[in-house]
Amino acid sequence: MNTVLSRANSLFAFSLSVMAALTFGCFVTTAFKDRRVPVDIHVSRVMLKNVDDFTGPRERSALGFVTFDLSADILAFFDWNVKQLFIYLSAEYTTRSNALNQVVLWDKIVLRGESTKLNLRDMKSKYFFFDDGNGLRANKNITLTLSWNVVPNAGILPLVAGSGHVSLPFPDMYESTKSY
Amino acid sequence: MLSIFKTIPSHMDYKGQKLAEQIFQGIILISAVIGFVFGLFVEQFGWTVYIVLAGFAVSCVLTLPPWPMYRKNPLSWQPPLPEMSSEPSQKPQETTKKKKHK
Questions:
Q1: How many whole angstroms separate alpha carbon A43 and alpha carbon A124?
Q2: Do A141 and A134 touch, CB atoms closer than 8 A?
Q3: How far, CA to CA in Å, does A148 sit from each of A9, A39, A84, B1, B2?
Q4: ipTM of the complex, rounded to two decimals
Q5: Residue A24: which of A159, A149, A153 has the closest Cα?
Q6: Residues of A at the B interface (Cβ-Cβ below 8 Å)?
Q7: What are phi and psi of A122, to 5 degrees?
């Protein structure tokens, strides 16, 4: 501790250890928090097409188009250990060939500091809702759930399912695809 | 360029070093506690980091340069032996011994 460099060295190392302890304390204060927020989903329109899926099997597969409304208040989510949220809407259903199918339809990244009231109307799905086969036609029960990934400053990344979900049946007939 | 920095004296005596270490550890711990409570209250971890960095800067200013308060207890060296031509072998040993104490 006699020269400036050795004093600076011990000062800096002590500061880093204290910062590490504070980060661990930050993680501990939010590790066991219940992160569920009520969510309101409403589907306004569903359309079903039968098209060629060039990435899958060679027969025509079912392609669904879902238009939905979404409203949620996620202000309670952003405590001091949350850096951003990754929200996604997924559809779950059962077909004859598979017991459980899960397809992600739409997602969004909500950064800290952006507006925390989600009020989306008439949103189209971002990703294709393809089924491998024709299991979507006349499917009685397709459940849309909103889930999110919490990206923290320090600690584990919990995956939470929202508490609102919507089940809806799909139409019985395919729409004919128009070609221009 | 580094030789310029080596000519600036930056030593402290032992009690001064102990005082400097206590000072910076105390300042950083206090700023850590304040920062943790403040960040928890404002719900932003960035404030905690800023407060700890401020504590780090304050303790840098207080403990890195050799202020006079760290030189209050200098070591009392023995007075140098007078130059005697009859003992040429002992003198260099004693002067080299004194030079090693920093």
A1: 10
A2: no
A3: 43, 11, 10, 56, 55
A4: 0.73
A5: A153
A6: 1-4, 7-8, 10-12, 14-15, 18-19, 21-22, 25-26, 29, 78-81, 153-154
A7: 55, 50
Which residues does A158 contact at the CB level (< 8 Å), separation at least 6?
A35, A149, A150
As separate numbers, helices (DSSP H) first and strands (DSSP E) second, chain B gives 4, 0
pTM for the full predicted model: 0.70
Domains of chain B: which residue ranges? Answer: 10-70
Taking alpha carbons only, the member of A64, A98, A40, A90 closest to residue A169 is A64
CA distances from A87 to A44, A126, A166, B2 (A): 20, 13, 16, 55
Q: Do the Cβ atoms of B43 and A153 come within 8 Å?
A: no
Strand partners of residue A91:
A103, A144
Q: In this complex, is the C-beta atom of B81 within 8 Å of any C-beta atom belonging to chain A? A: no
- Angle formed by the axes of helices A4-30 and B45-63, nearest 10°: 160
A23, B11, B25, B58 from B62: Cα distances, Å: 26, 15, 12, 6
pLDDT digits (tens, 9 = 90+) for A111-155: 887 777 777 777 777 887 777 767 667 677 788 888 878 888 888
Q: Within an 8 Å CB–CB cutoff, is residue B59 touching chain A? A: yes
